[in-house]
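Researcher: I'd like a candidate sequence for this fold, 334 residues long. If you have to choose between options at a position, lean toward the conservative one.
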């Protein structure tokens, strides 16, 4: 597929950039510093500020990180690819990534390890923010009926793209039967309205916007009831670090893992505070923030959830060999 060729080029570029950037920088882990006056260790996390970073914000504001001996700073990055060089040369201690790019990076032999999850699926698949939405009046009732249709995604190779394509194939859809179109989500909403696309793979707040315009939800990107890709509570975004940093700083990584587990649990139990963070840190309109479908928040990783998504990536051709989910999750030595 043309899309797979494009994705391969992106991965090669990412690896080249990482190799060049890591030769002249600081030693991995040198971005960490201890503040003896406060008894906490300063660490940085690189990532794009989205719903997935809400547990980090709440971990700061609610004193959860401090409780675990950490002073955490979010460093805005354009995307995971942009964060990797800084992660590898020690300018960042941790980074946030959707699971598919993380898996692809591991298969390209990048020395990374997942520490904890953030955004996760929820029990009721109709309440997932990642949805396939079809144009009103399209007559499309199942994912298999997307064959021969024009479907938009913000990025070929993204988690929702993988979920939708794998579910479509499991539903009996013909390989290469979908005409994929890459476009930003705001343009997808407009495309449904104009009829230039038949369906869109959306996340909040764009899912809500499309449905408010009268378009129709077709299926969860990850959890179609007949052919689920992920289980309820499976994280599809992770916080990761370099293997070198983890080897040199196991106590800090353990503290981060435990703090994120607690921060995610707090976010899951306080949706009002999640909405407040979305308004204050992303600039989202308060009325929109109050209506979006909030994801699950799960910090604990076993590797099984990574395995399920990797298996789907193998099905759709984004991986060439088997993946070991358990080996991708950090565990303390001994």
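Model: Candidate sequence:
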């Amino acid at each position: 597929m043309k899309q797979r060729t494009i994705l391969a080029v992106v991965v090669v570029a990412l690896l080249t950039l990482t190799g060049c950037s890591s030769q002249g920088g600081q030693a991995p882990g040198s971005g960490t510093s201890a503040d003896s006056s406060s008894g906490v260790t300063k660490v940085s996390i690189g990532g794009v500020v989205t719903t997935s970073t809400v547990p980090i914000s709440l971990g700061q504001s609610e004193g959860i990180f401090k409780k675990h001996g950490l002073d955490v700073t979010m460093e805005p990055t354009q995307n995971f690819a942009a964060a990797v060089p800084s992660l590898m040369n020690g300018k960042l201690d941790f980074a946030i990534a959707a699971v598919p790019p993380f898996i692809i990076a591991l298969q390209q032999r990048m020395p990374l390890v997942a520490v904890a999850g953030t955004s996760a699926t929820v029990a009721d698949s109709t309440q997932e923010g990642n949805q396939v939405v079809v144009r009103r009046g399209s007559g499309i009732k199942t994912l298999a009926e997307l064959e021969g249709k024009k479907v938009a995604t913000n990025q070929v190779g993204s988690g929702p793209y993988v979920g939708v394509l794998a579910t479509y194939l499991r539903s009996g859809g013909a390989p290469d039967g979908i005409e994929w179109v890459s476009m930003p989500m705001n343009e997808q909403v407009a495309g449904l309205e104009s009829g230039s696309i038949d369906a869109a793979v959306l996340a909040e707040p764009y899912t809500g916007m499309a449905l408010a315009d009268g378009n129709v939800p077709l299926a969860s990107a990850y959890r179609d009831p007949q052919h689920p890709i992920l289980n309820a509570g499976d994280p599809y975004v992770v916080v990761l670090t370099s293997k070198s940093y983890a080897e040199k700083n196991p106590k800090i990584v353990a503290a981060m893992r435990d703090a994120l587990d607690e921060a995610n649990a707090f976010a899951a139990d306080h949706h009002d505070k999640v909405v407040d963070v979305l308004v204050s840190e992303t600039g989202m309109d308060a009325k929109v923030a109050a209506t979006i479908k909030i994801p699950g928040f799960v910090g604990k990783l076993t590797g099984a959830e990574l395995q399920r998504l990797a298996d789907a990536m193998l099905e759709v051709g984004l991986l060439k060999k088997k993946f070991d989910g358990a080996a991708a999750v950090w565990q303390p030595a001994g």
